[in-house]
Write a structure and sequence with these properties.
Blueprint: H1 2-6, H2 15-20, H3 39-49, H4 51-59, H5 63-82, H6 88-133, H7 138-161
Helix pairs in contact: 3-4, 3-5, 6-7
The chain binds zinc ion.
Zinc ion binds near residues 16, 17, 28, 30 and 31.
InterPro entries: LOB (IPR004883)
Family: Belongs to the LOB domain-containing protein family.
Organism: Aquilegia coerulea (Rocky mountain columbine)
Length: about 160
């Protein structure tokens, strides 16, 4: 705030031009995305991508996409600074592992559902055979139905908790 007041006559440089120690032109490509009050934002991007590459990448994009491009470059650069070996690939591969694990759990749960439905169908058809022999008791048909739904819920919960 105080700095802006002092430099009111001259244009105060954006974070990029300040770091590169150059004059911040009126049409500076960095200025809209790297404000002077966020110096670290450009420092990491410059360290990882290099200012001239960032400049070139932004120039090649239409203006409405530059903000998103800067956000993703800042994310990638920060990840690379935090983790010099894997960068944002570290996050991607850990999420990929989570997807693999969850897909395995989902496949197991779906197999359990199929298994239970088969058991339910088997018990219902055996009931139907019995009811052919006896007087058809409709209460007998509903009892195993609700029971199997309860056991399915319990199995589902135990899967997610582990
Ligand atoms: Zn600038």
């Amino acid at each position: 705030m105080k700095e802006n007041g002092r430099k009111q006559g001259a244009t105060s440089p954006c974070a990029a031009c300040k770091l590169l120690r150059r004059r911040c032109a009126q049409d500076c490509v960095f200025a809209p995305y790297f404000p002077a009050d966020e110096p670290q934002k450009f420092a990491n991007v410059h360290k990882v991508f290099g200012a001239s590459n960032v400049n070139k990448m932004l120039q090649e994009l239409p203006e409405h996409q530059r903000g998103d491009a800067v956000s993703s470059m800042v994310y990638e650069a920060n990840a690379r600074v935090r983790d010099p070996v894997y960068g944002c690939v570290g996050a991607i591969s850990s999420l990929q592992q989570q997807i693999d694990l969850l897909q395995t759990q989902l496949a197991i749960a779906q197999a359990e559902v199929v298994h239970m439905r088969m058991r339910q169908t088997a018990s219902m058809s055996s009931l139907a055979v019995n009811s052919n022999n006896n007087v058809s008791p409709s209460s007998k048909l509903t009892t195993p139905h609700t029971k199997s739904f309860f056991s399915m819920d319990i199995d589902g919960e135990s899967l997610w908790s582990c």
